[in-house]
Structure formats: structure tokens, C-alpha cells
Design a protein that fits this description.
Largest interface: A-B, 34 and 43 residues
Order of helices and strands of chain A: HHHHHHHHHHH
Number of strands of chain B: 14
Low-confidence stretches of chain B: none
Oligomer: heterodimer
Strand content of chain A: under 5%
Largest sheet of chain A: none
Strand content of chain B: 25-35%
Number of helices of chain B: 10
Mean pLDDT of chain B: 88
Shape of chain B: elongated
Structural class of chain B: alpha/beta
Radius of gyration of chain A: 19 Å
Low-confidence stretches of chain A: none
């Protein structure tokens, strides 16, 4: 029950922050919508969609996956940076619940608010572009698993941020690195190990009406679980490193 | 068994490639229901000690027991008995209101809706921020922010509260209010560990005092014992007229104030006072009055630390 209360606390915190700074929230989502709108319009008018993806729908999948991954991977680090600079982080470490769970819950709370907005962007953009997109429920489940993988990587990055503090440059680079990861063509074990790469193929198959195999589900479930477990271990490890170095409060 | 026990605490940091021994084997015990003050100059090891107790810093050696729970092996149990107001503004979320702050920090310790609904109004009353509950914490005065930080520390109803520099940067009125709050908390049976440079606060509220310097304990005693130790050795002799051939400066601090001549002396032995009075008599210096100088805690602290330095 106490964990549910902690989740409620982080949820209400995220809600209060989004509500209080709604202009910032709205403007960031408006910018994301406008960017996507221009990409779609550009492809329709001047480009050859085939060079960027199999279809506009393929592009949409790539964009929504990219947007979701950027958020899940980097949001927690930005929150840690913020909490270190304004002085909230020590109170999370003093809580008997512990910082790992508190920040994990914070990530999930963020997810609850962010995902509907991201879908809203996709729907708006496709409407404006005169396209229709059918999103099967299985797509949403796969996207959720991908985001869990993203949160695992987010915890690893947040651990690195706890230890090395000023990681803004790395976090900014991540959004470009994700593009590489999504577009890269990996095989064998690398397909399994490189985050998100396997997901993009499966999500593409789902959106194009091709069914998913048992292997696809095995891949999605295990890779998400592994990344999440590794994320928790790495975050916990760095939390102990900064405790030993006496550097929790320093920023 | 004390509420809090620290045994042989040692911590070394690496700063710019050099080892810095912050705490060199500190041991002390804080009793149930007392206000225990940790004093020391900057860099003495106060904050490292406080942070080690909170497990914000992992010590190299030593044991810390909170209500009998070893914090290194039973961290969650130990932390359930501790709350803290850390130095500066590092305790509140500036972008949340007073009420939201209390609610957030209550929830992240795992408390239920029902507990918080009952407890938050009580805390708001105690910290006198009931009328400000919907104001953003970042827009409050420094004194109000500190009251809110204390409110957050009180919310979990822990028996032990750690306060690191609770009056730092506060105006006189806010400092007085914090002092009153500490008395009220003591009356409620809370154990308070206080780290501060505010000697006035220590003099007014502390039961026992631990003075550390360069990571080591210099003294740990009841506040009254420390004050008495210095009080009985300091005297002020007020006299009129010429002071004859004798150079009074060699006996202590000599100065004139409002037409009176004053000699302040620090004695190792009370017999020295009789020797000085004999000299005054021989020189026909008329003593108007003699008083035992009331030392304040600032002087006690300075004397103890200087004694350690020398």
C-alpha cells in the first residue's frame, strides 16, 4: 500500500507541475506537432516517401517511437538534474521507500500524462495531412513494452547523471543517437541488444497489418524486462557511489 | 540505549586527488527527548556526521544505530525513525504550493490519504502557514520556507529530527519562532539533533553540546557544565581614580567605559584574584565593584576551539 501512496505522490507532483506550467507543456507539444506536420507535408509535396520509410504510416510509427523514446530515456535525467539543483534529491534519499522506486514511479507518472498527448499529436497531424491511420490495440501494447525498455535506459542515464552531474550534452545527443538506433540495420544478437531496434520492425509489421510471431513477443518482453532490471541495478549502484563519495547534494 | 548512537565514525573524501579526513573516529549518543547540539568551525565534520546518520553519506568505518536499528543493515527501518531539515533551501519543492509540498513529501514516505488529510492541517497550524497553504513555496519569505521545511520534517511523526543550520539566513523574528518551535517539539518528546553556528540558539535550547574540530571531538557535555566551567574563571573589576604605577594590562583586558575603569581577568586559579586585590589595596585603588563575568556560549565555543587549536 505504501508503494501505491508513493506512486500517487509522484503522480500528483507531475500533474501539479504540468498544470502549473501548462504553457510550457503546450508549447513543447505544439512544436512537436508542427515539426511532424512539416515533415509529412514536405514528403507529400517534394520528397519520395520511399527514401525515408516504407510509407507515411511508417514515418508516423518512427516519429512516435522516437518521441516516446526521447522522453522515456532522458526525462528522468532532466528531473534528477532539476532535483539536484533545487535541493529535492536528498529528501528522496532520506525516504524509507528509497530514491530508485521514487524516481521509477516518477517516470511512470510522467508516462501516464505524456502518452495520451503523444497520441493526440499523431492523430492531429494525420488529420491535418489528410491521412488516416488505424492503430491496432496490439500496437499500443508493443509501444508500452518499448517504453518500459526506454525507462530502463532512462534509469541507467539517470544513474550516470547522479554520479557525473552535468550530463546535459549527453542527454541532447541521445535524441540523435536514437535516430541512428531506429534506422540502423542490426542482425543476430545485436538486434536483441541494441535498444529499440527490434521494436521498430515489429511495430512496422503491426501497423502494416502483418501479424506478430511468438519470437516477437519473446523479444519484446525479455528485452524490456532485461533493460528495466539492468536500469534499476545501475541506478542503485550509482546511488551508492554518490553516497560513498558524499556527492548527492553537489551539483 | 540512546535514541541515536554513533560509534567510531570515520569518513575520508578524495578532493582534487588529495585525501581529506572529514571525520576521524567520532562516537556519541543522543538520549531520548533531548536537544543535542553539534558545534564546530567550518569544515569540522558536522555536516558529514549529520549526512552519515541520514545515510546520505556512507562512512568508511563506524556504526550508526537509530532507535537500535543499524542504518547500514536496516536502512529503511532506521530511516522510518528519522526526518531532517537540511542546510539552506534544500528541503522544499519551489514549484509546488505549501500544501502540495507537505502532501508530496508525505506520499513519498508511503503515507496514506487518510493520514495526510488529518496530519497536514495540524502541521499547517503548528508552522503557522495555514493562510499560505495555496501559495507557491518559491514565493514565500526565507523564514516561511524554513517553517515549511520543518513542517515537512514533522509530517512523518518520526521520534528523531535532525536540523542542519535551521536558523541560517533568517531574520531575528524568524529565528525566535524556530527557537519556540524547538521548545515545543522537545515538550512533545521529540529527540532533536541540531547542527548550527547560531550560539544564541544553542545557549537557549540545547541540553547537551558536542564540539568537534578537524573531525575530532573536543568536548561533549551538558551545556550548563560548559558555561559554568568558563563562568567561574572570568571576573570584571570596576574601579575609579588613578591606577598608580601598575600596568593592569598584564593581568587582563583593561579599558575605560563611561568614565569607569574596567579590568577583565581570566583566572586559572581563584587565588590569583586575591593577589590582584592585594595589589589594588597597596596602590590605594578603590574597587567599586567586582563581578563574575557571565560568559555566553559564543565565548565558551571560541575558547574551547582555540584551546584545541593551540
Amino acid at each position: 500500500m505504501k508503494y501505491l501512496n508513493t506512486f500517487k505522490g509522484t503522480f500528483l507532483r507531475v500533474f501539479a507541475e504540468i498544470k502549473r506550467y501548462y504553457l510550457n507543456t503546450l508549447s513543447s507539444f505544439t512544436i512537436m506537432t508542427i515539426i511532424f506536420y512539416f515533415i509529412v507535408m514536405g514528403i507529400n509535396k517534394f520528397g519520395n516517401p520511399a527514401t525515408l520509410g516504407d510509407s507515411i504510416q511508417g514515418l508516423a510509427v518512427g516519429y512516435i517511437v522516437w518521441m516516446a523514446l526521447v522522453g522515456t530515456m532522458t526525462d528522468l535525467s532532466w528531473t534528477i538534474i532539476n532535483d539536484m539543483s533545487i535541493g529535492l534529491i536528498e529528501q528522496s534519499f532520506i525516504s524509507p521507500i528509497g530514491p530508485t522506486l521514487i524516481y521509477l514511479f516518477y517516470q511512470f507518472s510522467n508516462f501516464v500524462f505524456v502518452i495520451p498527448l503523444e497520441f493526440l499529436i499523431m492523430i492531429i497531424v494525420f488529420k491535418i495531412a489528410g491521412l488516416s491511420i488505424i492503430v491496432p490495440p496490439i500496437f499500443l501494447i508493443s509501444l508500452l513494452l518499448l517504453m518500459i525498455q526506454g525507462y530502463g535506459i532512462g534509469l541507467i542515464l539517470a544513474g550516470i547523471t547522479l554520479r557525473f552531474k552535468r550530463t546535459q550534452s549527453i542527454l541532447s545527443l541521445i535524441q540523435f543517437a536514437i535516430v541512428g538506433v531506429l534506422m540502423g540495420n542490426f542482425d543476430g544478437i545485436w538486434k536483441f541488444l541494441v535498444p529499440a531496434n527490434g521494436f521498430i520492425d515489429i511495430l512496422g509489421k503491426i501497423i502494416n497489418g502483418i501479424g506478430t510471431s511468438v519470437y516477437d513477443w519473446f523479444y519484446m518482453l525479455t528485452s524490456s524486462a532485461i533493460y528495466m532490471i539492468v536500469g534499476v541495478i545501475v541506478f542503485d549502484y550509482f546511488a551508492n557511489v554518490v553516497r560513498k563519495r558524499g556527492e548527492i547534494a553537489q551539483y | 540505549m540512546g535514541a541515536l548512537e554513533v560509534e567510531n565514525l570515520k569518513k575520508t573524501y578524495i578532493s582534487k586527488g588529495k585525501k581529506v579526513e572529514a571525520v576521524k573516529g567520532i562516537s556519541f549518543e543522543v538520549n531520548e527527548g533531548e536537544i543535542f547540539a553539534i558545534l564546530g568551525p567550518n569544515g569540522a565534520g558536522k555536516t558529514t556526521t549529520i549526512k552519515s546518520i541520514l545515510r546520505l553519506v556512507i562512512p568508511d568505518e563506524g556504526k550508526i544505530y537509530v532507535k537500535g536499528f543499524d542504518i547500514s543493515t536496516h536502512k529503511a527501518k532506521a530511516l522510518e525513525n528519522l526526518s531532517a531539515v537540511l542546510e539552506g533551501n534544500r528541503n522544499i519543492h519551489w514549484k509546488l504550493t505549501v500544501y502540495e509540498n507537505l502532501r508530496y513529501f508525505g506520499y513519498i514516505r508511503g503515507f496514506s490519504d487518510k493520514f495526510l488529510k488529518d496530519k497536514i492541517p495540524e502541521i499547517l497550524e503548528f508552522i503557522e502557514l495555514k493562510d499560505k497553504k495555496n501559495e507557491l513555496a518559491g514565493k514565500l519569505s526565507r523564514g516561511m520556507q524554513q517553517k515549511l521545511a520543518i513542517g515537512i520534517a514533522l509530517l512523518p511523526e518520526t521520534p528523531i529530527i535532525l536540523l542542519d543550520e535551521p536558523t541560517l539566513g533568517l531574520d531575528v523574528e524568524s529565528s525566535l519562532k524556530i527557537r519556540e518551535m524547538l521548545f515545543e517539539l522537545k515538550n512533545k518528546g521529540k529527540t532533536i539533533l541540531l547542527s548550527t553556528h547560531d550560539m544564541n540558539l544553542v545557549e537557549k535550547v540545547a541540553d547537551r553540546v558536542l564540539i568537534i574540530n578537524k573531525g575530532k571531538i573536543i568536548v561533549c557535555d551538558r551545556k550548563e557544565n560548559l558555561l559554568n566551567a568558563f563562568r567561574k574563571k572570568a571576573y570584571k573589576i570596576v574601579f575609579e581614580g588613578e591606577n598608580g604605577k601598575i600596568d593592569l594590562r598584564k593581568y587582563g583586558k583593561f579599558y575605560e567605559e563611561y568614565g569607569e575603569k574596567i579590568l577583565e581577568i581570566q583566572l586559572d586559579d581563584i587565588s590569583q584574584l586575591y593577589e590582584i586585590m592585594e595589589i589594588f589595596k597597596k596602590e590605594h585603588i578603590e574597587i567599586r565593584h567586582l563581578e563574575n563575568v557571565m560568559v555566553n556560549f559564543e565565548e565558551v565555543f571560541v575558547n574551547i576551539v582555540r584551546g584545541d587549536e593551540n
